[in-house]
Amino acid sequence: MQNLIDLIRSTFSNEIALLIISMLPLIELKGSIPIGLAMGFKPINAYLYSIIGSTIPAIFILLWIMPIISYMKTKDSLKKLAGWAEKKAKKKEGNIKKYEYLGLFLFVAIPLPGTGVWMGSLIASILGLNKKKSLLIIALGNLIAGLIIYTFSSFFF
Predict the structure, then answer these.
(1) Average pLDDT for the chain
(2) Do residues 121 and 58 touch, judged by C-beta distance below 8 A?
(3) Model pTM greater than 0.85?
């Protein structure tokens, strides 16, 4: 992962690099805010670039992940990957399924491993939640998660 981050940082301006880094599924804003601070960004700028970048994937996931998964299931070489993604999301869907949008908000807002925009968007899609409402809820949850990460990161930078 470090090699990928280094490649992104050497290829793009710091601002674009931080946006791209925050879009990566394993990093999202949980990693990009501290990375932005380490890159020398002002704290508010690290927060804002990370929020914007990490929210962008939700749009694409909510719109296109189910048709992509359906297509993948028709291809022998991709069936396993589609099944793996669905299984991973279904494992985490409990409270979202039970509480719907409140559950989705909390799932994204509480920055724990395996939670966040990518997984929240995937689960919302699998559950068939309203795309526009889900995007708004995910974005709000991401803002809160960003504040939590920013607060903890400020102790180190």
Answers:
(1) 95
(2) yes
(3) yes
